[in-house]
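Supplementary Note 3. Input sequence used for the single-chain structure prediction.
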Amino acid sequence: MAIIKVKHKGSFKNTEGFFNRALKKSYMATLHRYGQMGVDLLRDATPKDSGITAESWDYKIEQSGGQVSIAWTNNHENQGVNIAILIIYGHGLHNGGYVQGNDFVTPALQPLLQQMADQVWKEVTK
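The predicted structure, written as discrete structure tokens, is reproduced below.
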């Protein structure tokens, strides 16, 4: 009969601290801060005609099955069509023309998403 022994040296203080903070959901304030930062970045980056689309950004945080996600939304619609989507992907015109898409979202949010990833990594490894 084989016996397995595990020995460890050191402390699990940092790991236990991380899990205890996660259980207390203290990370929610950080997510809300990043959510608002994303809204500000998107508002500034949105091409402006009337400015309505730029002012229509918001964010939501959802928790499901032990996972947390943050989503940025835009509620500016015209005849049931989301205007931000038309700006990002482009759209046809009634006269047969086409307006080329302008993906302003990716360059606006990329630095923020990297900053979030870096902060999460710091939290996990401290």
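The CA atoms of residues 38 and 112 lie 7 Å apart. The first helix runs from residue 13 to 23.
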